[in-house]
Amino acid sequence: MSPEKIRRFSTKDIINLRNPSVVAIGGGTGLSSILRGIKEYTDNITAIVTVGDDGGSSGRLRADMGLLPPGDIRNCILALAEDENLMTDLFNYRFSEGELKGHNFGNLFLAAMDGISYDFYQAIRRTSEVLHIKGQVLPVTLDPMILCAKLENGTIIEGESTIPEVASKEKSKIAEIYLRDSELINPLVAAIEAIEEANRIILGPGSLFTSVICNLLVPRISQAIKNSNALTFWITNLATQVGETTDMTQEEHLKQIQKYLGSENEIDVIIQNNGEVPEEINRRYIEAGQEFIKPLKEAGNSVLLSDDLLLIEGNKLRHKTDRVAELLFNYYLNQNTIKK
Question: Which residue segments constitute the domains of the chain, with CATH numbers given?
Answer without folding.
Answer: 3-17+141-337 (3.40.50.10680), 51-139 (no CATH)
